[in-house]
Amino acid sequence: MMYGGLYSNPVPRFITLTTDFGLQDAFVGAMRGVILTIAPQARIIDITHEIRAHRIADAAYALASAVPFFPPECIHVCVVDPGVGSGRRPIAAAVGETLFVAPDNGVISLALEALQAATGASRHAVHLDNPQYWLARVSNTFHGRDIFAPVAAHLANGVPLQVLGPPLDRLVTLGHPPPESMPGGRLQGHIVYVDRFGNLLTDIAQAALARADPQSIRIEVGGSTLVGLNRSYADVEQGDLLALISSNWHLEVAMREGDAARALQVRVGDPVIVSGLDPAHREARK
Amino acid sequence: MMYGGLYSNPVPRFITLTTDFGLQDAFVGAMRGVILTIAPQARIIDITHEIRAHRIADAAYALASAVPFFPPECIHVCVVDPGVGSGRRPIAAAVGETLFVAPDNGVISLALEALQAATGASRHAVHLDNPQYWLARVSNTFHGRDIFAPVAAHLANGVPLQVLGPPLDRLVTLGHPPPESMPGGRLQGHIVYVDRFGNLLTDIAQAALARADPQSIRIEVGGSTLVGLNRSYADVEQGDLLALISSNWHLEVAMREGDAARALQVRVGDPVIVSGLDPAHREARK
Amino acid sequence: MMYGGLYSNPVPRFITLTTDFGLQDAFVGAMRGVILTIAPQARIIDITHEIRAHRIADAAYALASAVPFFPPECIHVCVVDPGVGSGRRPIAAAVGETLFVAPDNGVISLALEALQAATGASRHAVHLDNPQYWLARVSNTFHGRDIFAPVAAHLANGVPLQVLGPPLDRLVTLGHPPPESMPGGRLQGHIVYVDRFGNLLTDIAQAALARADPQSIRIEVGGSTLVGLNRSYADVEQGDLLALISSNWHLEVAMREGDAARALQVRVGDPVIVSGLDPAHREARK
Question: What is the pTM of this model?
């Protein structure tokens, strides 16, 4: 098989970046420079660089909430990589036309699942072990610049996934427990993300609340109990807590123009318990 | 009238973004994805995403101070939207070739005024009520992604303003009181913005100080009185307070390589009183 | 000499930005607008805008660590400018094809040195004193917008360096002392940068450690002594301090998933002393 024959025609491609490098140092700048040196036609789009340091689960959530809104022909680079320089594998993955480049630590797992669920496309992944597509000199502390950025740029130039390394069947996942049914028709989920406003995002999908009476549903979180689902922040007074459906269609707990996480003193992983999910069931029990 | 005939030829357009979404979550990333899905040729330029949460007046000031420096053929999207999901209207507006997309809460009012004053062009606005130009599924908490981003992208594709919704005559304005003349030839204005360095920007225009003697003009703010206008920060010693003309040609109070807002314990809305504005008048009074 | 003859053909060019303006105000937005008004084809790439206010040395370090990873045909604009409006000179400089625009306060000095060392190209510089390439109205507090951004945009349009002002032979440098040999074969360097993770970057090059035994080398910093060089953060336990080679090939002191600067209570300028650099020498002394 001729090498050149593997190339698809170079096409303008978007490369998105999601990292915990922050914006105060030149880390992200150096990654941008590497990409534009190899693939000057690539357009670099930031998702975020302010993921809290080393918080893989936060990055996974952020990436998964943005990826479905991008065009399919994107290369998503995600570098939250506390294991840099250790045995963890650098990987690239494809779901349909969409490509990912990241360490194999679960950081792209939620986005891969979301895309597979949305498109029905299968997933392919490779272990990035071909240094031909890395920078000539690779540090032990900054694979974002030395491995992930150049690999993404070569992908944007039409280099096919399979030349970057051998196929990988299993990727690391986050292993979050799904929401759990409890006695009395209650459902226990968790806070999975706290955004910059202090809003609490949970893993309880809108569908799980479908049969509930929006007036009488009860949400327990951080020692407080909220009754009823609101439609939008503006439905309550400033400083009041409320529950509503988030912009990615899950249960959210918020404080109007305030910080619910601070007010309730809760954080990612804390339980959220919903009751009153099935009024019919409740009537039957009586 | 044929629908297609309304389209101008698609041209490369800049879309600027000004929000309070911050850069730590994927909110801005999702907006970028929506824009590039609909209008892949659009070039997205950030003004700022770090407007303090829900501070409409801060966003209005920031936007108005940047817009005059952009090319006319821009689409400025500004989303500081504490009323999202409530009755406040989503709008688009045009001043000459320049377009705006925002909630109708005053956030674009200062920029509209600035552009109208600079160009003499008239203003047109519409109420965004045509869901054909929104995402298929609209959340109640993230119209930046679901309404404002897609509308901006469609405008970048040449969709004319008038198909987005019915015309609107009156838009919400901020209702800031203008500076006020006081007994003794004094002028009372206000701090209208505090920048990241702690510099105090006021609503007192350079023109109002035109007849003053720069050596003897007196500025009272936060219980301190400054005498004289300096030319630049470097005119005083490190840590000294000074008054000068800001980069948008208004009175500014600053501390060299320090934080005037913190030193004076003042904030937006606090009064700034200027005296010695008219030496001739003062002489005459004697 | 005909003016027009000086122009090279306009080519798409990258303009990078490094400032301490932060991202919460519209300063950077206004600079972007100015550039795109003059040179709409230019592609603006951020290195960082979160340099701590007025910290020229931090900016110099950040710029020098990113510039080598960019394509040569870039214009690097760096504005950390506490002397704005004073006598300090605005300058532009060239090393080979790479251009710089900045105040003459040392902020580009490390990047110029790095590029000259890497390419062997000579350096040319001019004093920006030709207002034809500035905004029509120049403030005393925001030369980033009024002088540096328009000059960079004109350079991106093919305006040659020499029409921007007269040549300058000497530029301001930072005057950092190099690491110093001490009795007993020890070497004293300094912390030159602290990154967002709290990692301590020093001025002690990897080459200076070449003959040391990686197991027995001793690093003293902030009252603590580390023994041995590690390969990557993952070599030690969470919360442990370690010494390793940084991604720009100098000695670095870090704490795994922690903040070494906070733990050791050290900052830029503090000494770092290395001993055990030459085992042969030590043997001979015995």
Answer: 0.93
